[in-house]
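If you are new to this repository, start here. Below is one unmodified record pulled from the training split, so you can see the exact layout before writing a loader.
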Amino acid sequence: MKKPDSFDWEAKLTGSPLNNAGFNKELMRKVRERVEMNEHTSRKRSWKTAVVSSVAAVILFVGSVTLWAAPGLWEDTRTAFTSLFQKEKTPDKPLPQLDPEKEYTLKFSHFNGDNFLMMQEGQSFIIRHPNMNLQVTQPRDFSKQEDISTWLDKTAPDVITIYSTEEFTKLIEDNRLLPLDTYAKRDGFALGEEAYEAGPMQLLREYGNGTLYGLAPQFETYAVYYNEELFKKFGVDLPTDNMTWDELLALADRFAGLKDGAQTIYGLEGSRNGMFDLIQQIGMTNNLRMGDLEKGKAYMNTAEWRVIWERVLAAYERGTVHTPEFFDTSKSYTYTKLLKKDAFASGYAAMKMERSSYVSGLLEYTQKENKSLKWNAVSAPVYAANPEESTFYSFNAIYAINANSQNPRAAWELIKHLNSKEVAQSHSYTYEFKLPTRSDVKWKQENVRRESFYTLRPSIGKMDLIQSHFPLYSLIKQASIQADLAAQGKKSLDDALTDVQQEAQHTIAELKAKNEDANTGKGADSEDE
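And here is the target side for that same chain:
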């Protein structure tokens, strides 16, 4: 059967001379006409296959010989044939609506357990979804050191509350979480900068190698809090965003030895956990490692770490840094009691490097104690090589959907609700100070600079550079003891660093051996299967 006239031009392609990139204008016009046609016939796939195969062969040959002769026509041809495939794409369909007559059971792991149902976000979800039976369970018990995957198989929640980025990463790597991008796109749930802060969203995607596997309503970072009155009284320039640690300590040094009446003034409030806390914070900012578990090496006695130890020791010796009273961590204390021993909250330390959540305690303490404290904040110190980035980023909780959920569509409704503008706005007006990841939420604390917490973006790829390599609890405890001994002059810096290095090496060796044994066991199990 003879082809229609509209197909005659296809036969001419094989005989077309290699001028103008192998195509004359008439044939190019026919190509474009064919690409734009939307014929729904049985010939559709066959003619496309024939055209693409024939022309692709010509294009490859021509491209190597005469592409330079007519770059404009080549671009037109490439665009025309690319569009051939683009026509085949199916647009994203809206998510199907939940059946309002059907009852859904949704299991949700949350730290507050059943109390979540009495919380504002829990009550508002139930009101909006009366046909959902929300069963709230406790998350994994960290004290039992149960494997997160084992716990997930045993409890089978539909929506998981994740409190550790290490757990979040492991669940992603093990394909235990559903990607959320498609749900959000099909449901019209905005994830761009018109709805979310770029930094937190960028970090969440980083854990999923570009794919979004969880959403977090709040995040936490650090800031440098400063006493406006002390800076004004002693004629010291106010701190600024994006300072390095050297600049911050130099500013703090200007308060060393000063007094306000009988009260000694300090430039910087230290940590109640000891001097090593400050050393560790500077090391984190400067992207230093304590060690590498895979290589089985400790890095605590390097030249870079030594410089930090020397700088911090000197600041303590000058009286620049105040050492808070030690509190027994095995006992519980009210925030108010803790802040009574806090030099910054009490008004005799000019600055303090602390979490964003410190704002809550500071506001509560000054109100209860009827203290007049004029303060503000600037961004956390930065590494000179990356002055726009911060390693001090973390999430309070990440909500994700179990990949084995029997109700993923209903689970998405809960994820969407917990991360909605409505819920974020309600949190911003509670007394507890939380940093919303959403960008469309009104800033409540008008007397606190919003930029202090949002001006720096997360240092992608370096967030857990220290912590992710091996557990630090025992090592940090020993390092803190050695640092305090050095500060008290009871031990030389050389001896302190040597002892810390040995402790770090011992810790890494034990953990490396433990991991290798675990991997060997897994291999043996696999072989048995």
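Two things worth knowing about this chain: The longest helix spans residues 493-528. The chain has a mean pLDDT of 79.
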